[in-house]
Specification:
Elements (H helix, E strand, L loop, with lengths): L1 H18 L23 E3 L3 E5 L5 E2 L2 E3 L7 E4 L5 E4 L2 E4 L3 E8 L4 E9 L8 E3 L3 E5 L3 E3 L2 E3 L6 E4 L5 E4 L2 E4 L3 E8 L4 E9 L1
Parallel strand pairs: 2-9, 11-18
Antiparallel strand pairs: 1-4, 3-7, 5-8, 6-7, 8-9, 10-13, 12-16, 14-17, 15-16, 17-18
Length: 195
C-alpha cells in the first residue's frame, strides 16, 4: 500500500517535471523511492531499467538530486543503441546499453533496452500511435492498462497540446507527444497540430 502511494506521488512529480522539460532536476521527496532507482544518497533516476520501442519516439529519464540546481552530465555506453541529452533518450537501433547521470561526485545508472516496436509489450497502450489535429480540436485519450499502479497522462509540450482529465486539446501548430506511464512502462502518441 505504501509503495503504491509513493509510486503515485512519483508519477505526479514526473508529470510536473515533463511540463518543464526532461532536463529539469527535482529533489526527491523525503523517504520516497522512484521506480527502484539505482542511486547514491544524493542522486537517483526515475528508472533502473527501461525498454523503448524503435519507432522514433523519445523516452525520458528523470533525475532526483539533493540539490535542485546541480549541474548534471549524461552519458551512454553505446550511442549506436540510444543517444542521451539532458535525460532525453533517442532510440537509434535495437540493443541494450547503460545510461549514466552524474554530478561529478555521485552517479546513477539505468539499463536501456531498445526493441523493435512490435516486440515491446507495454502492459500499457494508447489506442493511437499518431494523430493529426487542427488548433482547437479535442478528444479523449484512450488507453488500455493491464499493469498495476496509477496511470498518469501528460503532454510533452502543453503550448502545442494540452492534456487534462483524460482529454487532449490542440492549442497551436507544432508537434507534441501524449505520454501514458504507470511508473514502470510508458507509451506515446505523436500529435501533429496545424493551424
Amino acid at each position: 500500500m505504501k509503495i503504491d502511494m509513493i509510486r503515485t506521488l512519483i508519477l505526479v512529480l514526473v508529470a510536473a517535471m515533463v511540463c518543464c522539460g526532461c532536463a529539469h532536476t527535482q529533489s526527491a521527496p523525503n523517504g520516497s523511492v522512484a521506480n527502484d532507482p539505482v542511486a547514491s544518497s544524493d542522486l537517483m533516476l526515475s528508472h533502473a531499467a527501461l525498454v523503448l520501442p524503435l519507432d522514433g519516439a523519445m523516452g525520458c529519464l528523470y533525475p532526483f538530486h539533493a540539490e535542485d540546481n546541480a549541474a548534471l552530465e549524461w552519458f551512454t555506453e553505446d550511442s549506436a543503441v540510444v543517444e542521451v541529452s539532458g535525460g532525453r533518450l533517442t532510440p537509434v537501433s535495437e540493443g541494450t546499453t547503460v545510461v549514466t547521470c552524474t554530478d561529478g561526485v555521485n552517479s546513477a545508472v539505468c539499463t536501456v533496452t531498445v526493441r523493435d516496436t512490435a516486440a515491446v509489450d507495454y502492459g500499457l497502450q494508447l489506442s493511437d500511435r499518431e494523430l493529426s489535429a487542427e488548433a482547437g480540436d479535442s478528444g479523449k485519450v484512450d488507453y488500455t492498462h493491464t499493469g498495476s499502479g496509477a496511470v498518469v497522462v501528460f503532454s510533452s509540450d502543453p503550448s502545442v497540446l494540452r492534456v487534462e482529465n483524460g482529454r487532449w486539446e490542440a492549442v497551436a501548430a507544432g508537434t507534441a507527444y501524449i505520454t501514458c506511464t504507470d511508473g514502470m512502462t510508458h507509451t506515446q502518441c505523436r500529435v501533429t497540430v496545424t493551424d
